[in-house]
Amino acid sequence: MFIGIDVHKRYSQIAVLDENGEIVEEVRVENANLDDFAQQYAGSKAALEATSNYYHIHDTLSEYLDVIVANPGELKLISDSDKKTDRVDAKQLARMVRLGSIPESYVPTDEVRQARALVRGRQKLVENRTEYANKIHGLLSDHGIAQEVKPLSVEGREFLAELSLPAPWDALLESHLELIQTLTEQIESLEAEIEERAGSLKETQLLMTIPGVSYFTALTIYAELGGSPGLTGPRRS
C-alpha cells in the first residue's frame, strides 16, 4: 500500500492507495491515534510533509511504516494546485509515493534534535534577555538619563540597582533587572549543558580543533548542519 498523510496540529488526513493507484481508504485520524492506523498498514510506504510537529509523528509511524518526509518547498513546486484541500494533498502525497517521486527532506537524528533544542533554546533566552535590557534603556531615556549603561554587565546592574526612579517606573526597573538575572542564570545553565554535549560528540570535538571555534559554535554547526555528509554521514535526500 501507498499512504499519503497531510499533517495538522491535532489530526492528519490520510489517503491509502493500492498497487494500481486505486483509493483503498480516505480517513481523518487524530494524531494521538496514528500508531493504531500505522499498525493496520504495517510494512506500507508512507509520506508526510515536513511541518513544525512532524518529528513525533514521523517517529510514531516509522515503528510500522517505511516513512518518507517530503521537502515542503520542493513539493509545492511539483504539486501546486488551485484546488488544494486536506483530501487532495493526502491523495497527491500517496500518488507521489507510489510513483517514487517524493522530494525527500533530511530527518535529524535524536542527537541532532537534542543539540538543536539546546542551542535554539539558549538563543531564545538570549533574545529575551536583550529585550528586557532594551526596555531598561527605554526607561532611562524616558527619564532623561543619558549615561551609557549596560544592563547585562555587573557594573551596569549595580548602577541600576542604586538608581532612584519615581513610581511606577522604579518597580518596572526592579522587575526587568530580576528577569535579566533569572534569564542569565538559565542561560549559564544551558551553556554548561551545551559545553558538556559538545565535549561528548566526536563531530563537535573535531570542529573545536579549528582555531576560534568554541564549544557553542561547534554544537550550533552540528545542530544545524548535522545531516551533512561530512558530519554525520550521508543525508537522506
The structural domain count equals: 2
Radius of gyration: 25 Å
N to C succession of SSEs: EEEHEHEHHHHHHHH
Distance between the termini: 22 Å
Defining key terms:
237 residues, alpha/beta, Nucleotidyltransferase, domain 5, five-stranded mixed β-sheet, 5 strands, disordered C terminus
Descriptive overview:
By secondary structure, the protein is of the alpha/beta class. It is built from ten helices and five strands, in the order E-E-E-H-E-H-E-H-H-H-H-H-H-H-H. The longest helix has 33 residues. The chain is elongated and about 75 Å long. The C terminus is likely disordered. The protein folds into two domains: 98 residues, Nucleotidyltransferase, domain 5; 120 residues, no CATH class.
Chain-wise SSE layout:
Layout: E1 2-7, E2 11-17, E3 23-30, H1 34-40, E4 45-49, H2 54-62, E5 66-70, H3 72-79, H4 86-99, H5 110-142, H6 154-162, H7 169-200, H8 202-207, H9 215-225, H10 229-232
Parallel strand pairs: 1-4, 4-5
Antiparallel strand pairs: 1-2, 2-3
